Every structure is written in C-alpha cells, then in structure tokens.
Amino acid sequence: MRIDLHTHSTASDGTDTPAELVRKAAAVGLDVIALTDHDTTRGHAEARAALPEGLTLVTGAELSCRLDGVSMHMLAYLFDPEEPRLLAERELVRDDRVPRARGMIAKLNELGVPVTWEQVARIAGDGSVGRPHIATALVELGAVPTVNDAFTPEWLADGGRAHLDKHETDPFEALRLVKGAGGVAVFAHPAASKRGRTVPESAIAALAEAGLDGIEVDHMDHDPDTRARLRGLAKELGLLVTGSSDYHGSRKTCVLGEFMTDPEVYGEITRRATGAFPVPGAGGV
To answer: In this structure, how many other beta carbons lie within 10 angstroms of the beta carbon of residue 182?
Structure first.
C-alpha cells in the first residue's frame, strides 16, 4: 500500500481543489490519502464526492499550535468534525487569520512592497488565508523568486520583518481536544528547523506522556540524519512514525507520495480512531 498522510487543498493553502487532489492521488498510484487542511475540514465533502475507486480518504486537519513561543503543527486524523469543543477552537484559530494577514500586509507595505489585501484575497480564494498566500503575492510582485524564499527572516519566517503571530492552540490542549473528538494526533515535521525555531525533544517526550500518538519523521524538511534521530526518539517514546508529502500543489516543490507511511502504522492509526472512519472510494463524480 502507498499511503500519504499529509496533504492540502484550496480549502486552506493548497492549489488543487479537494476533487483535483484525490484524482491526482489516484493517478500517481496512491492507495490512501489524508486531507489535512489547516484548521479546517471544509474540503472533506468535496473530496469524498470525487473519491476515485481504489483510493481511501483519511479525513483530518493540521492544527496550528504554539508552545513556549514556538509555532508547531499537530496533524489530527479521523476525529468527529462536529465535536463542539474542537470545532470551536478550529474556528477561533481560523477567524484570526484575516486580521493577521492584513497586519502582515501592512508591515510589507512599510518595507516598500506594494502587496494589497485584494491581491492576497484573490490568491486565497475560498481557502483559509495564510502566509503561503502572502508569499505567492510576493512572488507575483517579484519581491522573491519562489514561495520558499519568502519564508526567511527578511520576510515571513517566524520572527521575520513582516511576521505577525496568530492565535494558536497550546499543543497539550490540542491533544485533549483531538482525543475528546475520537481522533489520533501526530506532531507534524517536528524538526523542520529551516521554518524557524523547533521545540526541544523534552517537549516531544512531555507530549508523548500526555497522549501524543506519533511524529511525522519522513518529511521533505528532515534530512537523513534528522530522520534517523527522530526515528530513534519515536522508538524510545513509544510513538508511531509517519511519512508524508505535505503536498500543496504548485505552491511547493513536494510531490504526492514523496514520503509515505508504513501500512502497519496506518492500520494502528485507524484502530485507535473512534471519531470517524476512513472513506473507501466508490468511483467519484
């Protein structure tokens, strides 16, 4: 089985619609794909409706968290999307995205970059507006050559000249909420240091003690030495190890299935979940 447990659509900051995403996943030979848009489940219905035969959909979301001033992301799988406490927290995080984006645009204007809210809103479309949309605007204006080049201290990286914090959930609270909604929680790209500061291994150990299910080890932002170190840490802490593409369509260079999750780990994730179940493809529309 070929299993990719971290992808994004136009429901957040990807460039493929949920329908396009699942069709592309089937075309490249994936057997299982997780749709994990940032702080939203809005793309799930469209993905289900278009799900090709032979492809299984894992519903999920990537939750924005912050621990001791360090931004981190939690992949939540197979939770009940209508559970009121987790739903309210997702809405709180999502609603803070617009004023934060407007504030970052104002900072960029002060730095001499003529980006506008209208431009960023056009790029975001119906998705939850975020830094990748602002980064795309910077590319359009010629301020940076690529989206990745916008995520530097000069521009949008954590602590960068045009960066602003947004509301982010304490990860221990996120764990409680995900578990309360019957979901499974995996720490996304925990050592992606080129994105900014990362939490220490002691924090991962504390999260494991609090109920964290796994860590995303095989990811494009982890070099081979980092993946080996994280694999050893996961074994020491009794955590599941996942691998994923973190696919965003044309907005990033990663491709579907670039890294994948072992079928036995996927099976354990589905066994632990009680809030929702994987959706088998029935041919789509």
So the answer is: 16
Non-local (6+) Cβ contacts of 225 within 8 A are none
63 vs 174: CA distance, rounded Å? 8
Instruction: Look up residue 203 and give its two tokens.
Output: 């924090």
Q: Which amino acid is at 91?
A: E
Task: Please tell me whether residue 249 adopts helix, strand or coil conformation.
Answer: helix
End-to-end CA separation in angstroms for the chain: 24
Across 189-215, b (16+ Cβ under 10 Å) vs e yields: bbbbeebbebbeeebbeebbeeebbbb
- For the chain, 285 residues long, give each residue's pLDDT as a single digit of tens: 999 999 999 999 999 999 999 999 999 999 999 999 999 999 999 999 999 999 999 999 999 999 998 989 999 999 999 999 999 999 998 888 899 999 999 999 999 999 999 999 999 988 889 999 999 999 999 999 999 899 999 999 888 999 998 889 999 999 999 999 999 999 999 999 877 789 999 999 999 999 999 999 999 999 999 999 999 999 999 999 999 999 999 888 889 999 999 999 999 999 999 999 999 997 765
User: What amino acid occupies position 61?
Assistant: A
Q: What is the pTM of this model?
A: 0.88
Phi-psi category of residue 69: left, alpha or beta, with phi > 0 → left and psi -120 to 50 → alpha:
left
- Reading the block at residue 118, the tokens are 């209208």
Instruction: Report the DSSP beta bridge partners of residue 279.
Output: 57
Q: Which two tokens stand for residue 31?
A: 């057997």
Give the Cα separation of 177 and 167 in Å (integer): 16
State the alpha helices, DSSP H only, in the chain.
18-27, 44-50, 84-95, 97-110, 117-124, 131-140, 147-150, 171-180, 201-209, 224-237, 263-272
Cross-strand pairs, 70: 67
Would you give the distance in Å from CA 199 to the centre of its chain? Answer: 17
